[in-house]
Structures are given as structure tokens and as C-alpha cells.
Design goal:
Elements: H1 2-29, H2 32-42, H3 44-48, H4 52-66, E1 76-79, E2 82-85, H5 89-124, H6 129-160, H7 162-173, H8 188-191, H9 194-228
Helix pairs in contact: 1-5, 1-6, 1-9, 2-4, 6-7, 6-9
Length: about 230
């Protein structure tokens, strides 16, 4: 029974950071205002010859696709030179793989969230509140430390050489070379240059670190509260 309890706690400690990180990815990746700000920052509409509003309309279709609310990326965009297919065939093939990552990430996040909720319900079910609060706080401290450390290391590595580790990410998560796009023929790389992904990666990382730090501080305060209550 003790070993089983340790396993349940270990799973909680591991799944809290995973669920939180995947949630933060979703929050940033589906934030329409974020895309508009990044497009303006890097002059993307001027680069591809399209108005900001039309670019945002095309981005909306892309995000609907990633959110599994659209079956394909077969649509045209309104450019200054006229209407044409927005994405190349290679763009579309790569986005099939990207969508698969998003769908799997959402599934893992949801499954982790269900486990976390079940763990919390069982933790407080007909048990002395003060004792359970202390145990939850200790789990929170463990989850925060376990979750912050690897992401801090990744942030440092990205600061040193983002392109290198961006490439490593693609080599790990994609089994083909469709992510190697040509700016002359593929629009995806033109609307999402490397600097766009640099900003997104750091935005997600800093949001996640701030949340984990809040969990750590809150858990430490709970331990103190439970100790002197």
C-alpha cells in the first residue's frame, strides 16, 4: 500500500508540470492577439504582400485546423497581387505533423488534468483538512522544483543557441524533413520566421516558470500555515 501511495504521489508530481506546460503552449499558440503583435513586430504583412486583416483571416483558418475544427488547409488568401493558394503543398504536409503534435499534446494535458483532479479529491476525501493540506503543499513543492529545473536549463540553452536546439526539437518530434522549408516556395516559413518561434518559446517558458514559482511560494506558505495553525 505504501509503494502504491508513493507511485500516486510521484505521478502527481510529474503530471502537474506537464499539464501546466501543455496548457501554456495552448494559451500562447491560440492567442490571436499574440500573432497580430508578432506580425506587426516583424513586418510580416509587408513581407508577403498582404494586409494585416487578411493575414489574420488566414491565421484564423490555420488555428482552426490545429484545434481540429477544420479538416484541411486548402484555402486561398487575398494578396495585393490577387488571390492564390495560401500554403504550398509542403507547408500542408508539414502542418499535418504539427497538428498531430497539438492533438496528442491536448490529449496528454486532458488526461493529466483528470488524474490531478482525482488525486486531489482522494487526498481530501474524509481526511483531516490540516494534514491533507500539509501533504498537498509538500507535493506542490516537489512538483514545482521538478518542473522548474529542466525548463530553466532549456531556457539557458535556448539563450546560448536557439537555432541549434530548435533544430534538435524538430529532429526529435518529426520523423521526416518536411519542416525544412524554402522561403522561395513555402509561405509558412515567411509568416513564421525563426524570431517568431524564439519569441513564442520564451513567452511560453516565462509564463510557465512564473506559474511554477507561484506554486512553489504558495506551497511553502501552506507548509508554514499548516505548521503553526
Amino acid at each position: 500500500m505504501k509503494k502504491l501511495r508513493i507511485i500516486f504521489i510521484a505521478l502527481f508530481v510529474v503530471l502537474v508540470p506537464i499539464a501546466l506546460l501543455l496548457t501554456d503552449v495552448q494559451l500562447v499558440a491560440y492567442n490571436r492577439d499574440y500573432y497580430r503583435a508578432e506580425y506587426a513586430k516583424y513586418g510580416i504583412p509587408e513581407t508577403i504582400g498582404m494586409s494585416m486583416d487578411n493575414l489574420m483571416n488566414s491565421t484564423e483558418e490555420l488555428l482552426l485546423y490545429l484545434d481540429n475544427k477544420r479538416d484541411d488547409l486548402d484555402f486561398k488568401g487575398s494578396f495585393t497581387k490577387g488571390e492564390e493558394e495560401f500554403f504550398s503543398q509542403r507547408d500542408k504536409q508539414h502542418m499535418v505533423d504539427v497538428k498531430d503534435l497539438f492533438v496528442k499534446g491536448r490529449f496528454i494535458r486532458n488526461l493529466s488534468s483528470i488524474y490531478i483532479l482525482g488525486f486531489l479529491l482522494l487526498l481530501f476525501w474524509k481526511k483531516p483538512f490540516k494534514d491533507r493540506l500539509r501533504k498537498l503543499a509538500r507535493c506542490g513543492i516537489a512538483a514545482a522544483v521538478a518542473g522548474i529545473a529542466p525548463v530553466l536549463i532549456i531556457v539557458v540553452l535556448m539563450r546560448i543557441d536557439f537555432y541549434k536546439y530548435f533544430t534538435v526539437f524538430h529532429e526529435i518530434f518529426f520523423t521526416n524533413d518536411l519542416w525544412l522549408l524554402d522561403p522561395a516556395t513555402d509561405r509558412l516559413i515567411n509568416i513564421f520566421p525563426q524570431d517568431f518561434f524564439t519569441d513564442m518559446a520564451f513567452s511560453i517558458s516565462y509564463l510557465y516558470i512564473a506559474e511554477m514559482a507561484a506554486i512553489l511560494v504558495g506551497s511553502l506558505l501552506l507548509v508554514r500555515f499548516a505548521k503553526f495553525e
